[in-house]
Amino acid sequence: xxxxxxxxxxxxxNESESSREAILKKMGYHKPSATNLERLQKVLSSSTLGLEVxxxxxxxxxxxxxxxxxxxxxxxxxECAANIARIKRQxxxxxxxxxxxxxxDTDFKRENQPVFVLAALESRRYLGFPEWLLRLTPEQxxxxxxxxxxxxxxxxxxxxxxxxxxxxxxxxxxxxRSYWLAPDGQIIAKNEGPVTNRAASPVIEAxxxxxxx
Length: 213
Prior knowledge:
Helix content: 40-55%
Order of helices and strands: HHHHHEHEHEEEH
Radius of gyration: 21 Å
Number of domains: 2
Oligomer: single chain
Distance between the termini: 46 Å
Number of helices: 8
Number of strands: 5
Largest sheet: 5 strands, antiparallel
Shape: elongated
Structural class: alpha+beta
């Protein structure tokens, strides 16, 4: 259902006789900026239309932005409102059932390490948070994650047993939503989607060269 609504919005924007700047003007942005255009693109690129975050650009909250986009595209507002509410409920449910965690990334590649040893030590690659963290805003959770990274680095001195030297941390704050944090806790990048095949990622490889050259 989310995909259908999002697909309809993308099609309407792409097929519209109006440019994206003109659509933004209809939404109330009298002089659309690069930031406004970037937000429109992010909303259309997001699997949840950005409704899982509380974005605000001094004009619209996330749900208001999507609603005004529907208005500018002359879509049925009652249907749009129902779709927005449905997506918001789903993202709220996902967030309520999801517990944020840190994944410790060492670019590990198995050679001759026994599988049973790796299985026994797998939990060392995950750092959880206390329940009270769930009551914080996403921004506050990120600060706590950065502090936990720094604390973990002090405790481990940057080495994670059989897994090797710690290269980075991934802070998962929602399903398939994460921040790449450096060993000192600094934010390197924001990621949407699963973090898979980490050691082989060309993005990680390129940024590693810049960070550790």
